[in-house]
Design a protein that fits this description.
The chain has about 625 residues and is an alpha+beta fold. The chain is built from 12 helices and 37 strands. Helix content is about 20%, strand content about 35%. It is elongated, with a radius of gyration of 43 Å.
């Protein structure tokens, strides 16, 4: 049974193969032949490089292609509208006829080419394919319309056949100069742009070049350019359009342009020449700002056409003042993850150094180094959040004004650089490349004005900056010390609290925490002591006296916490002592500890817990309501 089925299937496959080979192939060949007979032009249209459109009473238009770009060569030199030209090329490549007949047969019917409008055609289309000179040009002659059917007579390039084609072919070929001209000026996109060059009538040259994704001024100064502002300016140049074309006899602007704008791309460049300013236009405010847009007489270098172009006010300002508008305003350019050392210095103040291990990952802890009189250098753990804020402020520091690119010695002294108010040095250790340092100096005038002045060591440029940078870069170890002072292990328990009034050495509060509820004031106070943080530091060492609230103060209370330690012998305890001031104002109370080597302001949760234990019993409560009349 299976053998019969197999034989039947084999027979059907053989029959199907014979059908495809004998009939289907013939049908496809016939369709291809029919298509070839309907197609007016053949492979000679595959690589059209030059097109010429002309006719009696018409202006001859010649277009040429270089690479993938079409340009007008006659009657003016100008970029061509790629969409219009591609439509012409597509019409030539896919031109089909309804019917055709031989020219040699016209005499049999006492007819000639003139009867079809082909002796003197109203429009001719001449095209060349391949490399220049490799093939002779071919010409299509377009004659009269048919009497019926909205068709058109055209003569084949070899002059042997007359084809009847759709009337739409003539409409596609009969484009005027305005339709074939492109209105774009710059065609080099931002991602391709390599440099932007500007030159004004006074011959002042500005050149900005991109290297490895960064933009930088090469002339008239060597400085960093703002990547965003520069690329927005290039985008705006690419958005420029011809506002109107001027008559051919209009004076050229090429000899004395008021501004020359050049954009360099990959092996190509484009230059726009701005001539006389023609005033504001009806497009006033199109740039989105309060200043009006300005119309200029203009030309493209290497092109003969004169035209006008409207420049948005913001773009015009960027081009005329490129040294300031396109310049990088941020003073320091660095990756915070590569910073391994920060040194802050100020006059008459010991420097503060913050550092971390260069070989450690970016999240490694920072250390605070502080020099002390007679004790060498003291090392403490630094506050990572404070350092992150410091690096963030330095990274955001921007010029409010480019004060001077070539200051004199007198200027430097006047702006405070003989004795800078701040000197901040960053050591950078990138994963690849050598370590380097950046040093920022900040000066102020005497007497102070409303601005600070900054420069990078090794550079002459002086920037006017926000004076708040002086408050954000405090040269004090207290600003960068780790604020988490103590965090008890989970196994360590606080078993007792005792608060002593140091004025008379009396105990004002004592609690056995093993016998009080978990939500009692004493238990809440003990919970705050487990993870002790400073709101800010007053002194970097413990002392009996300190300044707070504008006065010199001494300690008022002593808090003793009994700690039951894990491991060890049963009943092993330790006492943690914290000294406290009177409550100063509504939200300030100072604490100090010899064990923690610090005098500091307590955070609000601890402040509230202390109040409940030390002052709640003496709190008179809210005032009594007034007596009824």
């Amino acid at each position: 049974m299976r053998t019969k089925v197999t034989l039947v299937l084999v027979f059907l496959n053989v029959a199907l193969f014979f059908f495809i080979f004998k009939f289907e192939r013939h049908w496809r060949t016939e369709r291809a032949s029919l298509e070839a007979r309907k197609r007016v032009l053949g492979p000679e249209t595959a690589d059209i490089r030059e097109l010429t459109l002309g006719g009696p009473g018409l202006t001859t238009i010649r277009l040429t292609r270089s690479g993938g770009d079409w340009s007008l060569a006659e009657p003016i030199a100008w970029p061509a509208n790629p969409h219009a030209v591609n439509r012409i090329v597509n019409e030539l490549q896919f031109l089909d006829h309804e019917t055709s007949f031989r020219v040699a047969d016209l005499a049999k019917n006492d007819q000639s080419l003139a009867d079809y409008g082909l002796a003197e055609p109203r429009l001719t289309v001449t095209f060349s394919s391949g490399e220049p000179g490799s093939r002779p040009p071919l010409t299509l002659r377009i004659g009269d319309e048919t009497k019926v059917g909205n068709r058109l007579y055209i003569l084949s390039p070899d002059g042997e056949r007359i084809h009847v084609v759709s009337q739409g072919f003539a409409r596609s070929m009969a484009l005027d100069l305005a339709e074939l001209r492109a209105d774009t000026l710059f065609t080099i996109p931002v991602f391709e742009a390599r440099s932007l060059a500007l030159q004004n009538a006074a011959n002042v040259r500005v050149r900005i070049r991109r290297e490895a994704g960064r933009w930088a001024f090469e002339a008239p100064i060597v400085a960093r350019a703002n990547k965003t502002a520069t690329e927005l300016a290039i985008n705006a140049l690419n958005n420029l359009r011809v506002h109107s074309f001027l008559p051919a006899d209009t004076a050229t602007v090429a000899s004395t342009p008021s501004l020359r704008i050049s954009l360099q791309g990959n092996n190509r460049s484009e230059t726009l020449l701005l001539g006389a300013e023609l005033g504001t236009t009806a497009m006033t405010g199109a740039s989105g700002g309060s200043q009006p847009d300005v119309e200029f007489q203009a030309a493209l270098e290497g092109k003969s056409a004169a035209f006008t172009v409207v420049l948005p006010a913001a773009l015009l300002d960027a081009l005329r003042n490129a040294q300031e508008v396109l310049r990088e305003t941020r003073l320091l350019e660095f990756d915070p993850g590569t910073v391994t050392r920060i040194t802050l210095a100020a006059p008459d103040t010991p420097p503060v150094t913050l550092q971390r291990d260069p070989a450690a990952p970016a999240g490694a802890p920072w250390q605070l180094l502080r020099r002390t009189d007679g004790a060498g250098t003291v090392t403490r753990t630094a506050d990572a959040d404070a350092i992150a804020d410091l690096l963030n402020e330095l990274g955001r520091l921007a010029a409010q004004k480019f004060q001077s690119d070539a200051p004199s010695d007198a200027d430097l002294e006047n702006w405070g650089f003989n004795r800078p108010e701040r000197e901040i040095t960053l050591t950078l250790n990138p994963a690849q490349g050598a370590a380097r340092t950046l040093t920022l100096q900040v000066g102020v005038t005497t007497p102070r004005d409303d601005r600070a002045y900054a420069r990078l060591a090794g550079e002459r440029f002086i920037y006017g900056v926000d004076p708040a940078i002086l408050d954000e870069t405090v040269v004090s170890p207290l600003a960068y010390r780790e604020r988490l002072l103590q965090e008890l292990p989970a196994a360590t328990r606080i078993t007792a609290l005792r608060i002593v009034d140091l004025n008379d050495d009396t105990t004002i509060s004592e609690h056995d925490l093993t016998a009080v509820p978990a939500d009692s004031p004493a238990a809440r106070l003990a919970a705050q002591l487990r993870k002790l943080r400073a709101a800010h530091f007053v002194l970097d060492e413990f002392a009996d006296t300190f300044a707070a609230g504008g006065e010199d103060r001494t300690w008022r209370y002593r808090l003793d916490a009994t700690l039951a330690l894990p491991g060890g012998a049963t009943g092993q305890t330790e006492t943690f002592t914290l000294y406290l001031s009177e409550r100063i104002g509504g939200g300030l109370q100072i604490a100090g500890s010899a064990e923690l080597a610090a005098v500091f302001a307590v955070e609000q949760p601890l402040l509230d817990a202390l109040w409940a234990v030390t002052y709640a019993g003496r709190d008179p409560g809210p005032p009594a309501p007034p007596a009824a009349p």
